[in-house]
Amino acid sequence: MSLSRRSFLDRLTACLLAGPWMLQPSILAARSRELQADLVIVGGGVGGCAAALAACRNGLRVILTEATDWLGGQLTAQAVPPDEHPWIEHFGCTRSYREFREGVRSFYRAHYPLTPEARAQPFLNPGNGWVSRLCHEPRVALAVLHQMLAPHCSGGRLTVLGEHAPVNAAISGDRVVVVEVEDRRSGDRRTLRAPFFIDATELGELLPLTGTEHVVGAEARRDTGEPHAPPEPDPGDQQAFTWCFVVEYLPGEDHTIERPEEYDFWRTYVPRLQPPWPGPLLSWEASDPRTLGVRRFVFDPTLRSSGLNLWTYRRIAAAAQFVPGTYRSDLCLVNWPQNDYWLGPLVGVSPAEAARNLARAKQLSLSLLYWMQTEAPRPDGGTGWKGLRLRPDVVGTSDGLAKAPYIRESRRLLAEFTVTEQHVGTEARMALTGKPRDEILAERFADTVGVGAYRIDLHPRTNGRNYLDLSCLPFQIPLGALLPRRVENLLAGAKNIGTTHITNGAYRLHPVEWTVGEAAGVLVAFCHSKKAVPRQVRNNPKLLAEFQQTLQRQGFELEWPRLRPL
Questions:
Q1: I need a labelling partner for 395 at 20 to 30 A (CA). Which of 143, 315, 385, 471 fits?
Q2: Helix residue ranges, H only, 308-448
Q3: Where does 30-94 have alpha helices with state H?
Q4: Nearest-5° angle of CA 153, CA 157, CA 163?
Q5: Contact call for residues 234 and 76 (beta carbons, < 8 A)
């Protein structure tokens, strides 16, 4: 049914206001229930956006779906500043990821009234948070991603379907034929058809829908040989997820929220973890990830106290870096041990149970805020910070919590190749090679498609296990980890690659997910031009060498210089 002129103009205006990526799907929605492209990417997070950029710049027509109304995943809808390795400013990511990072800085320089001192910083960190060299507001990341994608939207290469989630798939033999997505606003469904698909969802949602073999939770030590794996497989061993939020501090004002329904529970909750947590979850003490001893924090938005101040930990706007009056206060992103939720998983349970866990995670975050406003001990001996004000406008929601929870662990492929602790873990490599710490390197992969670095960082798990934080060597990303063992035209494009529960803790961070997605996008374009399937590229030395040369020409770094372990 054709659109009336008035209806068309209304939709067009709405699309332009929403951003360039929303233009085409809104118009196409009224035209067809089936869309076709060269590539369908399901999931518009970090990996999905990188995959779309790569495929489009290589000439493919792409459909990208996203379950929320913000592209960007961890960077935007989940509101998490990028966790990165210490060499990120000079090495250890792709050219396009570096362009994104510089795009964030350029956006602040172009549109925000920075102080002269801040503007002159070559590596501007707008929030001056100490977790990352680039702490920024989620809307800025969203704007930069829109800028990067806009030429492809305008050129007709990219169609983005916002607020569309996968609900079904059709398979023929070992190939995915179509994926069906549902509009979360209207309930309408649309069929997406393409010769290639990338699963870039936060939880690996295409894997069960397509019957692609995958793993949930922890593998058994007898299967992987990993020193830190449990003796038996445990699907319930999944990392905590976190519902983040942003606050500012306005002294002398009272912005106390309504008492959360579950506040009495969370106020007295003492985690039952092994090894033990030091006391109540809502406190300024937590387990130290590396030693599992007591780690003591300070919380002081006045910045008058010394110590590990959570106010500056993930601060996304440091008011002192902007012309006075730009911000009434710093903006603090709360993604802390105190609001990690591990009382139930999101994968391997019924939809009803997953929904309960999501709701309880929201209650935990709101309870943490209420506790900080009313009962939290202050360095001056008082209690509560009534001036803490929730900032729903910063995260684009009505309840003040991020649009989506911060996901650390996904379903993972049973892949052509699986990265284990023995490939990248410092202690495991020392035991395997017999070499001292200063001489060991991570396993070198002949099919490398990029590099990454981070410690093996597992947050408390849903089966009651506490942190696991292990030294890790700067590593490569093997192409085999992106490929299912059986399905021919589906690729992993996010945290769902062939890692184990343990190595997922190092491969799950922002720049690695970007590289994984971008590599998958380039691979599809390469296969399209060679009339090949991904498995052939990996298994044919000539094709693999040509593909890796293509990656390098497009700004991929495929191996590390010699660096110390993290």
A1: 385
A2: 310-313, 351-374, 392-395, 421-424, 426-433
A3: 46-57
A4: 55
A5: no
* Span of 4-8, 65-69, 253-257, 430-434 with lowest mean pLDDT: 4-8
Contact call for residues 437 and 426 (beta carbons, < 8 A): yes
User: Is there a contact between 358 and 341 (Cβ–Cβ < 8 Å)?
Assistant: no
Angle at 307 between CA 289 and CA 131, to 5 degrees: 55
Non-local CB neighbours of 425 within 8 Å, separated by 6+ positions:
226, 227, 228, 456, 470, 471, 472, 473, 502, 503
Report yes or no: 156 and 58 within 8 Å, Cβ to Cβ. no
For residue 444, is pLDDT > 50? Answer: yes
- What are the backbone angles phi and psi of residue 531, rounded to the nearest 5°? 50, 50
Asked if the bond preceding 275 is cis, omega within 30° of 0, the reply is: yes
Which among 22, 237, 284, 7 has a CA at the least distance from the CA of 145?
Answer: 22
Query: How deeply is 346 buried, as exposed, middle or buried, from its count of CB atoms within 10 A (0-12, 13-18, 19+)?
Result: buried
pLDDT digits (tens, 9 = 90+) for 300-329: 999 998 889 999 999 999 999 999 999 999
Rounded Cα–Cα distance for residues 71 and 44 (Å)? 5
Q: How many CB atoms sit inside 10 A of residue 113's CB? A: 12
The amino acid sitting at 262 is E
Angle (CA) 417 408 267, round 5° = 155
- Which token pair is 232? 């038996």
Tokens standing for residue 238: 């999944």
Would you place residue 29 in the very low, low, confident or very high pLDDT band (cuts 50, 70, 90)?
very low
Q: Are 400 and 247 in contact (CB under 8 A)?
A: no
Locate 17 and state its tokens: 């206001």
Measure the CA–CA gap between 182 and 167, rounded to whole angstroms.
7
Q: What are phi and psi of 477, to 5 degrees?
A: -110, 110
CB 492 within 8 A of CB 520: yes
- The candidate with the shortest Cα–Cα distance to 501, out of 220, 252, 110, 270, is 220
Beta strand pairing status for 412-413 and 214-215?
antiparallel
Are the C-beta atoms of residues 318 and 297 closer than 8 Å to each other? no
Bridge partners, residue 317, by sequence:
331
14 in Cβ contact with 20 (< 8 Å): no
Report angle CA 548, 553, 555 to the nearest 5 degrees: 95
Element (H, E) at 243: none
Helix (H, G, I), strand (E, B) or coil at 115: coil
Q: Are 198 and 40 in contact (CB under 8 A)?
A: yes
Q: Cβ of 34: how many Cβ atoms within 10 Å?
A: 10
Q: Evaluate whether 95 touches 555 at the Cβ level (below 8 Å).
A: yes
